Amino acid sequence: MGQELRNQLMKIHQLFPNLIKEVRGKGLFNAVELNSKVLFPVSAYDICLKLKERGVLAKPTHDTIIRLTPPLSIR
Length: 75
Prior knowledge:
Elements: H1 2-15, E1 20-26, E2 29-34, H2 36-39, H3 44-53, E3 59-61, E4 65-68
Antiparallel strand pairs: 1-2, 2-4, 3-4
């Protein structure tokens, strides 16, 4: 499941290569590092708030990293 999430994040990275610096993770713990030079004045926190409005839970780390740790709920 974590690899599938990273694959989807990599597709987004390919759409916005100037904005997204790196996608990384292990298991369900994943992160997207943003390019601070392109991002300013918006921060990772601002993006996490927008993601929350869309039902995605994410946490900012520093100003440029968004951590994604989806809940493990399997049916």
